[in-house]
Design a protein that fits this description.
384 residues; alpha+beta; conserved putative lor/sdh protein from methanococcus maripaludis s2 fold; Elongation Factor Tu (Ef-tu), domain 3; OB fold (Dihydrolipoamide Acetyltransferase, E2P); 4 domains; 6-stranded antiparallel beta barrel; 3 helices; 36% strand
Length: 384
């Protein structure tokens, strides 16, 4: 009896040891993050290859058309101006005097024209009287011809005087044009961004091929757009009018709605390995851009196609764009499965074959032990 008990105790100890060894050596499930295949909107997007730049629709680097000493500077940085407002004026007393002289000469020419034309009118009247008297044989033929010649000469003098008036008007326009070359006016309404001249300094226009700082940098911040490069491979997919989402580092995750307004008709090859096409995107709601500044860096996502209620999964769950690991909740294992995809972007991919709504796929593909056939357990702390 004692021997039997000892045998039973020995067998129990062996069973417990085997169970403990199995428990300690059993495969541990790998913790995985899962996402469910479900219906939703999937958009195909094209993004810029390098950061784009917010630009003003109207921006002008202004410098007087001629060199000279700054006599009046009528604005300062940050001032808002209206179209046609005088911003800067060079010393131009000599040109002002030329305008005055031209205007005086024009008045004198006008007076001489009136005098000559009155004389011509009187000569024509005298000629008509001479003709009547000649018809009545009261005036000789020579007298009548002399009267006609004098009338024609007076008419010619009138025409010459009138031409002189036109010349005088042109001289005024020329003098005023020369004067305007010393005056810098706003070509559009905007804000003075920069000034590079002071009163008394000599300002010179930029010689051809030699860039120089403008006297005044004028920016119209009421109209902004984004200019950004996209890869030449993506360019054929983009059309003007396509919707776009614009994001700026300065505004965090906020996105601004817009649309493609221009696609450059050429490829930039500044970097031979990365050729790009410049696109411009306008903002759908200009009133939302009041806080934006020209020069901000920005990115754009151009929506080239969109499908609603598509079966989708996170794009990070894809393996080489054609396989996924599906979690089997029955035996808690991972199953590799071939799939077919449709529209896709960095966030979601449409599934056309290989998955059913509700099935769960692994998104934590980079974890150790995540592979086909592996025992797995959902990482509840990482579930969305």
């Amino acid at each position: 009896m004692r021997v039997l008990k000892r045998i039973l105790w020995l067998l129990a100890i062996i069973a417990i040891s085997v169970a403990g060894l199995w428990y300690l050596s059993r495969p541990q499930p790998v913790m995985v993050t899962l996402a469910r295949a479900e219906a939703g909107t999937v958009e195909s997007k094209v993004t810029n290859t390098r950061a784009g730049t917010i630009k003003a629709c109207n921006r002008a680097a202004l410098t007087p058309a001629m060199g000279g000493q700054a006599a009046r500077l009528l604005v300062k940085k940050g001032d808002s101006v209206v179209a046609g407002q005088l911003l800067l004026e060079l010393w131009n007393a000599d040109l002002v005097a030329q305008v005055t002289v031209a205007e005086s000469e024009a008045k004198a020419a006008q007076a001489r024209s009136q005098e000559a034309c009155l004389t011509a009118d009187n000569a024509r009247a005298e000629t008509r009287r001479a003709q009547r008297l000649h018809n009545q044989k009261l005036v000789a033929q020579e007298e009548m011809e002399r009267s006609e010649t004098l009338a024609r000469a007076s008419a010619a003098s009138c025409a010459a005087a009138q031409a002189t008036v036109l010349v005088s008007a042109s001289n005024i326009e020329y003098a005023q044009a020369m004067l305007q070359r010393t005056q810098l006016r706003a070509p559009f309404a905007g804000v003075v961004a920069e000034l590079s001249g002071e009163i008394g300094e000599y300002i010179t226009p930029s010689p051809p091929g030699i860039p120089m700082p403008p006297a005044i940098d004028l920016v119209d911040t009421s109209c902004l757009y984004l200019s950004a490069p996209i890869d030449e491979v993506d360019a054929p997919q983009v059309k003007t009018g396509m919707p776009a989402e614009i994001s700026l580092d300065a505004f965090g995750k906020r996105k601004f709605a817009g649309s493609v307004r221009r696609i450059a008709p050429y490829v930039l090859d500044r970097e031979k390995e990365s050729r790009t096409v410049e696109i411009e995107a306008g903002f759908a709601s200009p009133e939302e851009t009041t806080q934006l500044l020209p020069g901000y860096s920005a990115d754009v996502e151009i929506i080239t196609a969109s499908r609603e209620q598509a079966l989708r999964i996170p794009s990070e769950a894809l393996i080489e764009s054609k396989r996924v690991l599906v979690y089997n909740p029955v035996n808690h294992t991972l199953e590799q499965r071939e799939i077919k995809t449709g529209l896709a972007n960095w966030q979601y991919t449409e599934i056309t074959e290989g998955l059913q709504a509700g099935e769960q796929v692994v998104t934590s593909l980079g974890r150790d032990g995540v592979k086909n056939g592996a025992l797995a357990a959902p990482d509840e702390t990482a579930q969305p």
